[in-house]
Structure of PadR family transcriptional regulator:
Amino acid sequence: MKHLSNVELVLLQIIAESKQMSGYEINKVIEHRGYREWAKIGTTSIYVGLQKLKEKRLIQSDSSGDKFGKGPLPVKFAITENGKQMLRNEVIDCLSSTRERDIRFDLGIAALPSIHKEEANEALKKRYEFLQETSLHIGGKYEAQGGKKKLPLHIRALFLHPISLIEKELQFIAQLISELEGGTAR
């Protein structure tokens, strides 16, 4: 099955956390956590995403609930076993192989409770190695083109900016792995 969109990943993660939620409740969680700003999730995309997850059989809906006030009967969504497996796979993929400055990594962090601590550690260690290799690759290109001595400032900056971001990310991942191994996380 293809990867989930960012919206689908967020929705699946939120539904998995709560066991069962309505679209309205999901919208409130998205607003409260600030997903709307950094993951660019609008209200319409929530309902479109829920429909796509339902079509993929990753969630199921139930409209048999208590109705209060006017309006339609609230529909509650719950994750299926296929949805749990897809979420697990997506989170591991997000944590282990996305590039630096990739929102998928942030979404993977937000969904850490969806996987076991050992799986998170393994995925984060893969990401650490991936970023180290990426930094070496960029650094190699930088040096091959003359580095600080030959490249003009704007070209040096194009190389040094991602390298410095990767170095910070490596520090962050090392700290996260340390906390996971130390038992201060799930």
The first strand starts at residue 21 and ends at 22.
